[in-house]
C-alpha cells in the first residue's frame, strides 16, 4: 500500500508541473536582487528552467537590448525606464487573469506608476531608496545629505553611483531645484556641484561599491542597501550607517515587464504570479530588508526593513524625463569630463 501511495504522489507531482516541463525562462535582472533559493524553488515547483543574466544600471540594460540583445522574457527596469520601454512598444501586454496574486499589491506604491495604473505592462517588484552608507569606524560627525561628498578630508575614500539619473537628479534637488528642471542656471549649478563631488571621490561606481565598502577600501558609498549588506560580514554592521539623504534622496520602484517577442509567455506569466505569492515574496523582502509592496507578505515578514514606506516620502521618484533627458545628459557628461 505504501508503495502504491508513493507512486500516486509522484504521478500527481509530475502531472502538476508536466505542462511546463522542459520549458525555459530568460531573466535580465539587477545583481544580488533575487535570492537563488527562489529561482531553485520555482524550477522545482514548475519544471521551468530559469536562465538569468545581470546588469548594474538601467542604462546598461537598455543599451544592451536596443543594440540587439534579444531572447529575454522578463526584465526588471526602474520606473523611468519601464515608462520609456512601454512608450517605445518594447513590452508585451500582461494577461492579468494569469497573475491573480496581483491582488496583494500595496496600491500606495503601485499607484505611483501612474503611466500604467492598471498594471497592463508593468508589475512592481520592489520599492526602495538610493542612500548613502558610511563606515563609522573611519568617518565621524558627518551630515546626512550629499554635502558629505564635499569633504576633502576623506578624499579618495568615497564613491558615487555611475548613473546619470541618480547623481544628476540628486545634485539638482540638493541645490533646491526641480528634479526635471530645464533651467540653464539650475543645470550649470548641478553640474558644478557634481564636479566638486568628483574631486573628492575615488570614482563613480555602480558595480563594486558594496564589495569596496566591505573590504574598507571605500568609507562612504552612494548606492543600494541590498548591494552593500550582501557583501559585508555580520561584525561590520556595528560600523554601518545607511541613511536616506535628508535632501536630494531618490526612490525607485523596480518592476517586472515581459519583453516584446517573448517566446515563453506562459512561463513568464507563471513567474510573475509566483513572485507575488505571499510566502514567496516574503523571502524577497527579508533578503533585501526593504519595505514590502505585497500586503500579505508584510504581515508575515521576519526581518524589519532598514527604512519604511513613510521614510520614502521625502525622496524623489525617478520618472521618464522625455526630451529633457538630453539636456541633463549634456551637463552630466560635462561633469564627467571636466
Helix and strand arrangement:
Blueprint: H1 2-18, E1 24-30, H2 36-46, E2 49-55, H3 58-66, E3 74-75, H4 79-87, H5 107-110, E4 123-135, E5 158-160, H6 164-174, H7 184-198, E6 203-204, H8 209-214, E7 220-224, H9 225-229, E8 240-243, E9 250-258, H10 265-275, H11 278-288, H12 295-300, E10 316-317, H13 324-337
Parallel strand pairs: 1-2, 1-3, 5-6, 5-7, 9-10
Antiparallel strand pairs: 3-9, 4-7, 4-8, 4-9
How much β-strand is present in the residues? 15-25%
Q: Could you name the ranges where pLDDT drops below 50 across 5 or more consecutive residues?
A: 1-18
CATH class of the largest domain: Alpha Beta
Record field, number of beta strands: 10
Give the second-level CATH assignment, the architecture of the largest domain.
3-Layer(aba) Sandwich
Major β-sheet profile? 10 strands, mixed
Mean pLDDT: 92
- The CATH superfamily of the largest domain is known as Periplasmic binding protein-like II
Rg, nearest Å? 21 Å
Secondary structure category = alpha/beta
What is the rounded distance between the termini?
79 Å
**Number of helices, counting only DSSP H or I runs of 4 residues or more:** 13
Helical percent range?
25-40%
Defining key terms:
338 residues; alpha/beta; D-Maltodextrin-Binding Protein, domain 2; 2 domains; ten-stranded mixed beta sheet; 13 helices; 10 strands; globular
Please give a structural write-up.
This protein folds into 2 domains: 2-127 and 252-313, D-Maltodextrin-Binding Protein, domain 2; 128-250 and 320-337, Periplasmic binding protein-like II (D-Maltodextrin-Binding Protein, domain 2, 3-Layer(aba) Sandwich). It is 38% helix and 16% strand. Strands 1, 2, 3, 4, 5, 6, 7, 8, 9 and 10 form a 10-stranded mixed beta sheet that branches. Strand 1 (24-30), helix 2 (36-46) and strand 2 (49-55) form a beta-alpha-beta unit. The model is unreliable at 1-18 (pLDDT under 50). With 338 residues, the chain is α/β, with parallel strands linked by helices. It is globular, with a radius of gyration of 21 Å. It is built from 13 helices and 10 strands.
Amino acid at each position: 500500500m505504501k508503495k502504491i501511495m508513493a507512486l500516486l504522489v509522484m504521478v500527481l507531482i509530475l502531472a502538476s508541473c508536466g505542462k511546463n516541463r522542459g520549458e525555459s525562462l530568460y531573466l535580465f535582472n539587477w545583481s544580488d536582487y533575487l535570492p537563488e533559493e527562489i529561482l531553485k524553488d520555482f524550477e522545482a515547483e514548475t519544471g521551468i528552467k530559469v536562465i538569468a543574466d545581470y546588469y548594474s544600471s538601467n542604462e546598461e540594460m537598455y543599451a544592451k537590448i536596443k543594440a540587439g540583445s534579444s531572447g529575454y522574457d522578463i526584465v526588471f527596469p526602474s520606473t523611468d525606464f519601464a515608462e520609456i520601454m512601454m512608450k517605445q512598444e518594447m513590452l508585451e501586454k500582461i494577461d492579468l487573469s494569469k497573475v491573480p496574486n496581483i491582488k496583494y499589491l500595496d496600491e500606495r506604491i503601485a499607484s505611483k506608476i501612474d503611466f500604467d495604473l492598471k498594471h497592463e505592462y508593468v508589475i512592481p517588484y520592489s520599492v526602495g531608496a538610493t542612500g548613502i552608507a558610511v563606515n563609522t569606524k573611519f568617518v565621524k560627525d558627518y551630515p546626512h545629505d550629499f554635502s558629505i561628498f564635499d569633504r576633502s578630508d576623506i578624499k579618495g575614500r568615497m564613491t558615487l553611483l555611475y548613473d546619470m539619473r541618480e547623481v544628476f537628479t540628486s545634485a539638482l534637488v540638493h541645490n533646491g531645484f526641480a528634479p526635471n528642471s530645464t533651467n540653464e542656471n539650475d543645470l550649470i549649478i548641478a553640474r558644478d556641484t557634481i564636479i566638486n563631488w568628483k574631486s573628492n571621490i575615488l570614482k563613480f561606481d555602480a558595480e563594486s561599491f558594496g564589495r569596496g565598502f566591505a573590504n574598507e577600501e571605500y568609507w562612504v558609498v552612494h548606492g543600494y542597501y541590498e548591494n552593500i549588506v550582501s557583501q559585508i560580514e555580520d561584525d561590520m554592521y556595528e560600523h554601518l550607517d545607511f541613511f536616506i539623504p535628508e535632501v536630494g534622496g531618490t526612490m525607485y520602484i523596480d518592476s517586472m515587464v515581459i519583453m516584446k517577442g517573448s517566446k515563453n509567455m506562459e512561463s513568464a506569466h507563471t513567474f510573475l504570479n509566483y513572485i507575488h505569492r505571499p510566502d514567496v515574496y516574503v523571502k524577497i523582502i527579508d533578503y533585501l530588508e526593504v519595505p514590502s509592496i505585497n500586503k500579505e507578505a508584510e504581515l508575515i515578514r521576519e526581518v524589519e526593513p532598514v527604512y519604511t514606506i513613510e521614510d520614502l516620502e521625502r525622496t524623489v521618484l525617478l520618472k521618464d524625463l522625455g526630451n529633457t533627458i538630453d539636456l541633463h545628459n549634456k551637463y552630466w557628461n560635462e561633469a564627467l569630463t571636466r
